[in-house]
Amino acid sequence: MPRGLTAVLMQPGKPLELETLPTPEVEPGGILIKNTAAAICGSDLHYWRNDNNYSGPDIRRVPGHEFTGVVHTLGKGVTTDSLRRPLKEGDRVAFPFFNPCNRCYWCVRGEHHACPHRHRKSQQFTLNEYAYCDGGYAEYYYLPPGHYVFTVPDVLPDDAIPPVNCALCQVLHGLEYSEMKFGDVIVIQGAGGLGIYACAVAAEKGASKVIAIDKQTPRLAMARNCGATDVIDMNEFPTPESRVQRVKDLTDGRGADVVVEVVGVAAATLEGLDMVRFNGTFVDIGNIIPATITLPATKVITQQIKWKGLMHYNPWIMPAALDFLVRTKDKYPLSKVVSHSFPLSDVNKAFTFAEWQGKNTGTAATRVILKP
Fold first, then answer.
1. What pLDDT digit, counting tens, does each position of 279-321 carry?
2. Radius of gyration of the chain from Cα atoms?
3. Confidence band (pLDDT; 50, 70, 90) for 210?
4. Which of 124, 191, 235, 333 could form a disulfide with 214 if both were Cys (CB 3.0 to 4.6 A apart)?
5. Burial class (CB in 10 A: 0-12, 13-18, 19+), 365
6. What pLDDT, on the 0 to 100 scale, is given for residue 314?
7. Can you tell me the distance from the alpha carbon of 268 to that of 350, in angstroms, rounded to the nearest whole number?
8. Quick one: DSSP state of residue 182?
């Protein structure tokens, strides 16, 4: 089996290291992927900053989860993708970065996004227990038998694919989960990769208004080009109260039917809840670190707000996301969500460039990818 360059997280808040490691043996039914590009997601920036204040022993884990590749090796018996379309070595593919077990209470109920056994091996194990080149920030990724995989339509450019298996699929599932209705007003907190995709998905699902909020003006311009009808620039509306009032002004005083949080800052949740109309829905996607917020229970109870947390997505979301990109490729510049590219060997330079917190001018990036 081949060996591949692998980025290794030793300590959150410290530079990633590089190692060359062997790939796993391909079992019957398995697929070895040769990664072609991996994106830096906002959740990756959390450990880059050490937002969890980790101070324990070295982790030695392979990070990265938003990525794509081509088929390197097909295990015995694999001839098609998960929709029974022909699959061969060299084909471009997209796949979830997690693998529902299909044999638990949640999977039986069709709740694959909540399967407690779904996590990839590079998340379950450190390199001390599983010493393979197998992850997002690596040259290879192994899909074990039964893993979902989908061929990528030829009309889509390469740079449109890396964010599909996280950013696009996550917000598509989030808006489905919100049960938004045709004509609803949608507020998107954050106009990075997830936020831009959310604008386009909300627009295509029939939202009457799509309101994007961010502090970085270029991102808001991109959001407008991708379905946002209105934007709220945090430089112009610098306080939560002013932003909440702006949402009320844009909705005849009601507030939004659905607010989607994709910032990853806990304070945004408090602000977002105030933007939701009476009996509306708040979908919390970005807050994946254990930051604490304090709020009166009446904020949710008396306003009858449906507060939904969501992580990952169900299998049908991925082919729907790829089809969405094909159908809208001439309508929205979603293939340009990926704005900058670095070689995998420059992973630390790429993270420094992608980071936006603590920078007065933010970052010029919407999504940065790493190419092995």
1. 999 999 988 777 888 888 888 999 999 999 999 999 999 999 9
2. 20
3. very high
4. 191
5. buried
6. 97
7. 26
8. T
The two three-digit tokens of residue 199, written as one number: 């604008």
Q: What residues does 94 pair with on adjacent strands? A: 150
Higher pLDDT residue, 356 or 326?
A: 326
CB under 8 Å to 164, separation ≥6 — which residues?
Answer: 68, 94, 318, 321, 322, 325
Rounded (10°) angle between helices 193-204 and 217-225: 30
* Whether the model pTM is above 0.90: yes
pLDDT of residue 287: 83
Q: Taking a C-beta distance cutoff of 8 angstroms, is the pair 75, 28 a contact? A: yes
3-state secondary structure at position 247? helix
Are 163 and 152 contacting, i.e. CB atoms less than 8 angstroms apart? no
Q: How many residues does the chain have?
A: 372
H/E element holding 259? strand 256-261
**Using N-to-C axis directions, what is the helix angle for 317-327 and 193-204, rounded to 10°?**
80
